[in-house]
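During the no-cost extension, the postdoctoral fellow (Dr. R.K.) reprocessed legacy sequence entries with the updated structure-token encoder. One reprocessed record is reproduced below for audit purposes.
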Amino acid sequence: MKSDFYTAIAQIAHERGIPKEAVISSVEHALKTVYAKMAKTEEDVTVELDDPTAGIRVFVNKRVVAEIEEPINDILVADAQKIAPDAQVGDMIKIERTPENFGRIAAQTAKQVVLQRIRDYERDTIFDEYNDKQGEVLNGVVQRADSRAVIVELGRAEAVMPAREQVQSERYRPGQRVKVYLVEVNRDARGPQLIVSRSHPNLIRRLFELEVPEIFSGAVEIMHIAREPGLRSKVAVAARQEKVDPVGSCVGVRGVRIQNIVNELYGEKIDVIEWSADTATFIANALSPAKPINVSLDEPNHVATVIVPTDQM
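Re-encoded structure tokens follow.
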């Protein structure tokens, strides 16, 4: 029958959703600390929990020597052979030093240490998981919102959307499902801090990649994005394969693709324009739906003068 201590370890691992081996490692580390305090020693010890029925056993690791150099870690060969008859100089032997009632004392003393190491493991796991997702769009649910920040649940972690990353025209309410752009992941004493955004230009880029297969595959490339969050965005695209219409691919049949992105952004207007290496042509395209008559460039001063019909001013 499995010991209660081992059963408790398995239960903690199951409830926390982490590998049992990680919990066992945490327990062993904690118990080494407990034993060192109880025995008031700095000896190199090993705590074994390998056998579920054997309970907890503490071993002191000793180096077999002909002459003692480090009293804490060395043992004379003659003394070592009383414990392990085959011991030779240079060997390492284990001497059991399990204190009486160690299981009960250890369980009480190690509890907080174990929980702390489990929390550390969870934090590291969450950090690693979301650190790899920086720059991606994630689905979240608004937990709470106030004038300072919006807290968004992303599954295993909560993210913060500060005021600077919010769209001023949007209103966030608890329970609302939103797509957010993961800007950065930072380590913090209280756990990983995730910063997300609804105003970042790359949110537009990622939404287009999700909605337009040609962009995801590389047949169409987004060259530039200019955005006034909540009002209007302009996306310049170029074809990387022949016979591909970059603007048409992004808009979709009857505007379905672009409309899905607009809906996700709560009505923000999105203009998709064709990129051009020629600056004057690109500026003319960027002013769509207006149709300029002439574009003249003052390149040294980075100024363009555009003439459009009166009804398109």
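The chain has a mean pLDDT of 87. The chain has four domains: 4-130, 134-196, 200-275, 282-313. The remaining legacy entries will be reprocessed before the final report is submitted.
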